[in-house]
């Protein structure tokens, strides 16, 4: 099975985005996962779909978390894939 690709849709100066990024940095490497940060405004389809509802965590292009995320939920998201 292919590894999940995680993307964090974010905006500059977004404190919630920074919090989610810190959590991703703590949890994903322990599972051999990586993520990339993408500016939600870099693509019109993301901007239209998510607007002000950020941060958004995508796994394989599908939204799996919006605005808030805790360690327990992130662990479940990662393990569900395996």
Could you outline the blueprint of secondary structure elements for this entry?
Layout: E1 6-10, H1 15-27, E2 35-39, H2 44-50, E3 56-59, E4 62-66, H3 71-80
Parallel strand pairs: 1-2
Antiparallel strand pairs: 1-3, 3-4
Largest sheet: 4 strands, mixed
Give the overall shape, derived from the CA principal axes: globular
Helix fraction by DSSP (H/I, runs of at least 4)? 25-40%
Please report which band the strand proportion falls in: under 5%, 5-15%, 15-25%, 25-35%, 35-45% or over 45%: 15-25%
In the CATH hierarchy, the third-tier topology is known as Glutaredoxin
What is the count of helical runs?
3
Oligomer: single chain
Number of E-type strands:
4
Low-confidence stretches: none
CATH top level assignment: Alpha Beta
Could you name the CATH homologous superfamily? Glutaredoxin
Distance between the termini: 8 Å
Q: What is the radius of gyration computed over CA atoms, rounded to a whole number of angstroms?
A: 12 Å
- Looking at the overall shape, the CATH architecture is 3-Layer(aba) Sandwich
Give me a quick take on this structure:
The protein is an alpha+beta fold.
């Amino acid at each position: 099975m292919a590894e999940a690709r995680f993307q964090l849709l974010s905006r500059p100066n977004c404190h919630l985005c920074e919090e989610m990024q810190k959590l991703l940095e703590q949890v994903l490497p322990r599972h051999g996962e990586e993520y990339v940060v993408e500016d939600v405004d870099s693509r019109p389809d993301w901007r239209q779909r998510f607007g002000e509802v950020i941060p958004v965590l995508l796994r394989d292009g599908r939204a799996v978390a919006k605005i808030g995320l805790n360690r327990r939920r992130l662990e479940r998201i990662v393990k569900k894939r395996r």
